[in-house]
Write a structure and sequence with these properties.
Residues 3-236 form the PABS domain. Spermidine binds at residues 63, 87, 156-159. Homodimer or homotetramer. Pathway: Amine and polyamine biosynthesis; spermidine biosynthesis; spermidine from putrescine: step 1/1. The protein is α/β, with parallel strands linked by helices and 277 residues long. The protein has helices at 59-73, 89-94, 110-119, 121-124, 139-144, 170-179, 197-208, 258-263, 269-276, and strands at residues 4-11, 14-28, 33-39, 43-48, 51-55, 79-84, 102-107, 132-136, 150-156, 180-189, 213-220, 228-235. It folds into 2 domains: 2-55, Spermidine synthase, tetramerisation domain (Spermidine Synthase, Chain: A, domain 2); 59-240 and 260-276, Rossmann fold (3-Layer(aba) Sandwich), CATH 3.40.50. The strands form 2 sheets. It has a 7-stranded mixed β-sheet, sandwiched between helices. Strands 1-2-3-4-5 form a 5-stranded antiparallel β-sheet. Strand 3 and strand 4 (43-48) form a beta hairpin. Helix 7 (197-208) crosses helix 9. It binds S-adenosylmethionine. Residues 48, 53-54, 62, 83-87, 106-109, 112, 138-140, 156-158, 163-164, 167, 189 line the site of S-adenosylmethionine. S-adenosylmethionine binds at residues 48, 53-54, 62, 83-87, 106-109, 112, 138-140, 156-158, 163-164, 167, 189.
C-alpha cells in the first residue's frame, strides 16, 4: 500500500480516504484481510476487510470509552472479559483500574494480536501483563461456555459481518447475561447512527429485553464511519448515570473524564429516537 490514498467505503456511496506512506503488512488470515499501514495523518493503522479498526493517533477515544464507562459504573470490577479487541487497546485501559484482578481477552484471530504487538506497540503493549490472559478463539463460543463468571464484559468486535456476525444477535446478548455475575455490566461497540441506525435500533431492542438498565452513549472517533460512534451498555444492577462521586479515582486518560462519563449519554434527537422505538 506504499505511497497512495487508501479508501474505506463506508456505504456504497460514501467513504473516507487517507494517505498511506508505507505498507507494513498485508495478509489474508483464516478470518479476514489484515492490513497494517503507516499513514501520514494517523500514524500506524490496522484495517480488517478494508475497514479502519484503529490508529495510533485517535485510538484512545474508543478504547477509553469502551473500558472506563462500565468499569467506573461497577463498584468492584475484579474479573473482566474482552471479546475481540485483539489490538490490545481496551485491555490497556482495563488495567488502569486497580480493582481488576484478571482481564481475559478472546479474539478469534491470533494474527491481529501478533501484528498489533509488532506495529502498534503503544496500543498492544499491555497484552503480556501478569493480570491478562489472551485466548485465541470464537468469542461467541467462549460466552456460550461461561456462566456467572465476569463482573464486566466488553465486546470490541469488528462490524456485524464475517466472524463477528453472531456478536450482534439477541442470543449472544442472552449468553452475555448468563456469563455475567448477578450484578454484571456489559458494553458493546454499536457502530454509528448515520449509516447503521437499524442496527442500533435492533441492538437496543434486544438488549432492553435482557438487561433492566440499557442505555446508549457516544464518542467522537474521526477515523470511524461518520465520526459519531455509539456504544450500548447493559447492566443488571448499577446505573451508569448514578455513579457516586467518590468512585471516580484518578486515572490517566486523554478523552474520558467523569464529566464526559455522564455527558456521553446525552444524545442528539435523531439518535435518542433509536433508543425509544
Ligand atoms: N475497535 C474496532 C472497531 O470498533 O471496529 C475493533 C477492533 S478489534 C481489532 C476487532 C476484533 O474483533 C478483531 O481482532 C477480530 O479478529 C475480532 N473478532 C471478530 N469476530 C470475532 C469473534 N467471533 N470472536 C472473537 N473475536 C472476534
Amino acid at each position: 500500500m506504499a505511497g497512495f490514498w487508501y479508501t474505506e467505503k463506508q456505504t456504497d456511496n460514501f467513504g473516507i480516504t487517507l494517505k498511506v506512506n508505507k505498507t507494513l503488512h498485508t495478509e489474508q488470515t483464516d478470518f479476514q484481510l489484515l492490513e497494517m499501514a503507516e499513514t501520514e495523518e494517523w500514524g500506524n493503522m490496522l484495517f480488517l476487510d478494508g475497514m479502519v479498526m484503529t490508529s495510533e493517533r485517535d485510538e484512545f477515544v474508543y478504547h477509553e470509552m469502551v473500558a472506563h464507562v462500565p468499569l467506573f459504573t461497577h463498584p468492584n470490577p475484579e474479573n473482566v472479559l474482552v471479546v475481540g479487541g485483539g489490538d490490545g487497546g481496551v485491555i490497556r485501559e482495563v488495567l488502569k483500574h486497580p480493582q481488576v484482578k484478571k482481564a481475559t481477552l478472546v479474539d478469534i484471530d491470533g494474527k491481529v494480536i501478533e501484528y498489533s504487538k509488532k506495529y502498534l506497540p503503544t496500543i498492544a503493549g499491555k497484552l503480556e501483563d501478569a493480570r491478562v490472559e489472551v485466548m485465541v478463539g470464537d468469542g461467541f463460543l467462549h460466552i456460550a461456555e461461561s456462566e456467572n463468571a465476569y463482573d464486566v464484559i466488553m465486546v470490541d468486535s469488528t462490524e456485524p459481518v464475517g466472524p463477528a456476525v453472531n456478536l450482534f444477535t439477541k442470543g449472544f446478548y442472552a449468553g452475555i447475561s448468563k456469563a455475567l455475575k448477578e450484578d454484571g455490566i456489559f458494553v458493546a461497540q454499536s457502530d454509528n447512527p448515520w449509516f447503521k441506525a437499524d442496527l442500533i435500533r435492533q441492538v437496543q431492542k434486544d438488549v432492553k429485553e435482557i438487561f433492566p438498565i440499557t442505555k446508549l452513549y457516544t464518542a467522537n472517533i474521526p477515523t470511524y464511519p461518520s465520526g459519531l460512534w455509539a456504544f450500548t451498555i447493559g447492566s443488571k444492577k448499577y446505573d451508569p448515570l448514578a455513579v457516586k462521586e467518590e468512585r471516580f479515582h484518578d486515572i490517566d486518560t486523554k478523552y474520558y473524564t467523569k464529566e464526559l462519563h455522564n455527558a456521553s449519554f446525552v444524545l442528539p434527537k435523531f439518535v435518542k429516537d433509536l433508543t425509544e422505538e
